[in-house]
Amino acid sequence: MTTNRKLAVWLLTVSTLIIVLIVYGGWVRLTRSGLSIVEWNVVTGVVPPLGAGAWEGEFAKYRQTPEYQIVNFGMQLEEFKFIYYMEFGHRLLGRITGLLFVGPLVYFLFRRTIPRTHIPSYLGIGLLFALQGLVGWLMVKSGLSDRPQVNHLRLTLHLSCALALLAACLWRAFDYLSSMSCPPNLSRTTRRLCTGLFITLCLQIAAGGLVAGLKAGHVSDTFPKMFGVWLPQGLWAMQPPLANLFDNAVTIHFQHRFFAFAVLAVAIALFAVARNAAALKNGSYLLLGLLGVQIGLGIGTVILHVPLGLASLHQAVAVALFVTSLFLCHRAYRYRKTTANTA
């Protein structure tokens, strides 16, 4: 196996675990399990409570939280164990993913397998892992003081950091895999559309984080109208007006459902100019298909009152769209030949 291939396999493995973490983290949130562990113990936290006394101790800590007192008052120990193990599994998988990055990184650095010019990017990925852990704890901590839910802005930042980490790992992996075959040069319009699509997708996913954090998916269960009208009351009820984009559940729900069609419009435009370009053809087909599925899942999630399975699948497809769009950007920008036909 070539050096590039080894590094690519390693990074793709780490990326796969990050994807699992993102989707699993969404499931933890949907099952209201994320606030079950009220402390962050970096070392001792890798072992769950052992014995009846340890479990009673953890349950006693949870009973002091707003979530227990307001949402889960009267919960029994066995019910608590379920949500505890859900959150414990998420934290443990995060640690495993971090170790899977750091361990091989040290080995590859020692063997001088990684090109010297690539080392800063790997150090940056390591810092992103540390930042993600810190943001995750700050997010949990925000739900342990005065209200039974995490701060929606911190939740969105946590999701965004995870996606940034995923993008950094995948981009470097694509570098190693693409070095064996360079796609043809593409027109400036095509490259700009790839960038535009990636940016609009990132904005839409971030808005989805706000929807999740504010539980704004429950605001309206009709589509395409909200409350029977196109422009619902309360859309710009907050002052200053900019606050509505971050804190108003009605506004965030409204913009998230309709901005999806802006993403679709950019994807169609990209498909129109890239469907005959070998470098982007398959990816553009896949992305357009995933977008159709995603919009259908979003509508279904709203109409059916945010069922767990459908909402989780909606998030998983969002990650698939993110990866596909990133791949298209890499193909468009990273390797170009000037002798090939342009698209």
Q: How would you characterize this protein structure?
A:
This protein is mostly helical and 343 residues long. It folds into two domains: 1-180, no CATH class; 182-343, no CATH class. Helix content is 69%, strand content 0%. Helix 1 (3-30) runs antiparallel to helix 11 (308-333) and helix 9 runs antiparallel to helix 10. The protein is flat.
Summary tags:
343 residues, mainly alpha, 2 domains, 0% strand, flat, disordered C terminus
Count the helices. How many?
11
Quick one: how many beta strands? 0
**Strand residues, percent:** under 5%
Order of helices and strands: HHHHHHHHHHH
Q: Into which percent range does the helicity of residues fall? A: 55-70%
Evaluate the radius of gyration: 22 Å
Structural class: mainly alpha
Supply the number of structural domains. Answer: 2
Q: Brief overview, please?
A:
The protein has 343 residues and is an all-alpha fold.
Give the helix/strand layout:
Elements: H1 3-30, H2 52-62, H3 66-71, H4 77-110, H5 119-141, H6 152-178, H7 188-214, H8 244-247, H9 249-274, H10 281-303, H11 308-333
